[in-house]
Amino acid sequence: MHFSFETIPTFVWVFIAIYIVHWINKPRLSKNEPPMVSYKIPIIGHTLDYLFNAENFLAKCRQQYGDPFNIYVFGQVTTIAGNEFAHEVYRSDVFSKESASQDSFPLHRVLKILEYPETSDQFIKTVREQFVAKLPLYTGRMQKQLMISINKEIGDCSNPKLIITTNGIFSSIIARPIADTLVGQEISKNEDVVKAFADFTKDFISILRHVITLKKHLKPVLEKRLKDKEILGDKYEPPLDTIEYLLNDPEYGTKVITDDYLNKICEFVYVIVVASIFTSAHHIAFALYDFAGRPELWDDIYEEQERIDKECNGELSPQHINKMVKLDSFVRESLRTGGSALMHIPHKCLESYTCKNGMTIPKGRMVKTYLKDIHYNATAYGPEPRSFLPYHGLENKFPATKIDKNYFVFGSGKHACPGRFFAVNEIKIGMHKLILNYHIKTPSGKIEKKVHLGPLTLPPVAGLIFENRKK
Ligand code: HEM
Ligand SMILES: *[C@@H]1O[C@H](CO)[C@@H](O)[C@H](O)[C@H]1NC(C)=O
């Protein structure tokens, strides 16, 4: 061993540097905070457990520390809200998901419209009045668009065909009906527009390109509609879609299509694309893998779809969709067990908050909802809450859209997802058509494993085997 004089100060400096970094990043807790889960390595904290072993790690913390508890990840203290505390977070205005998402993902830099707080109300209103209130009127169009997508993306499978599902195939399937509802029947036929919607959340790098694509196609359509309206007056028959709704809105309406106006409408449309396509695509993928891996359910669910298909002669009405009770229950269960351990969107605490149990959450703290703790609840789902209970919703009369204390996939309270009726409808129609047309299997013949990425869960990557049903 020989230390030169130089190496000694180097050690000291490294030590001081680590100490300072640690001091800067040291989790600072205020009084009466939720308990901090203990950790051994400074700076790193729980980051490794969070990245590589999230489900077990969180379950252990929950058992040992109760609810809520604090963890230290990526140099930041995060409060984890389980079954008890999450309901409080969703009920209080002190916790804001808008503020949290601005911090964690700067989408508002590109979609400027997100910087204005009042637009959030306009989105919610638009989804309620356009997507949900008019849902029955969209049923016919939705199934037509879904069939176009299915034929294009899956097509003829006279011989069994392995379909790769990791390349955005479900986004493409889901994007078409959403494009139809958002920008209308003229433009949603355009493959560039459908692709711009489907890819929007896949490559954020190309966001600006996607906005330009939509602007280009939207301009002539909006101009024509304004002109028609002027010429036809009362005889003008307004098309049913979101851009028409916005054109007639007191705040979003216009008499001339300027570039600013086009930007505003395009951004508005893309915010709804972000909220709707990725989530729906994700969950239809989970649902198909759940179905494909469980042969014991195939006949029962197929029978229901076949009976309804005969009844409606292939043209579903809202009443027929309501009759898909087994499929609805299956989808609900897939939504309950498919989601991530933690909810994707965190909430930020806007001012110091005292919980019912007396603990204090300091201003600025990020709070993440521990979805699995809410969903895997033995009181609500019996002794094995982690198992797949396809008819739990049917037996208990809980439709897939109904929010409940232990069914939190759409959030809860006044900010619960307003698009859930649309989403569940779309997933059900898509599943109905797929199950009617194809036998769907997993390559292994068993339930395929989901992919875990830190606390997030993604659909399996094995692919699905489709084979035409003989009619
Ligand atoms: C399976 C598909 C979907 C899932 C799992 C889902 C889930 C959620 C969740 C968890 C929230 C946030 C609740 C919260 O943290 O406060 C939310 C909010 C929202 N979702 Fe969805 N969503 C889906 C589909 C859709 C669709 C299709 C639309 C639009 C047509 C939509 C529009 C919105 C909007 C506008 C909000 C904001 C509501 C508010 O802040 O008051 N979502 N969604
Ligand atoms: C299950 O959920 C109910 C209602 O939210 C709650 O009262 C109960 O404590 C939960 N059980 C467990 C084991 O978390």
Automatic annotation (TrEMBL):
Coiled coil: none annotated. Its cofactor is heme. This is 568_t:CDS:1. PROSITE patterns: CYTOCHROME_P450. Gene3D superfamilies: Cytochrome P450. It comes from the Eukaryota. Belongs to the cytochrome P450 family. InterPro entries: Cyt_P450, Cyt_P450_CS, Cyt_P450_E_grp-IV, Cyt_P450_sf. The chain crosses the membrane at residues 7-24, 268-289. Keywords: Heme, Iron, Membrane, Metal-binding, Monooxygenase, Oxidoreductase, Transmembrane, Transmembrane helix. One of its GO terms (molecular function) is monooxygenase activity. Pfam families: p450. Heme binds at C417. It comes from Diversispora eburnea.
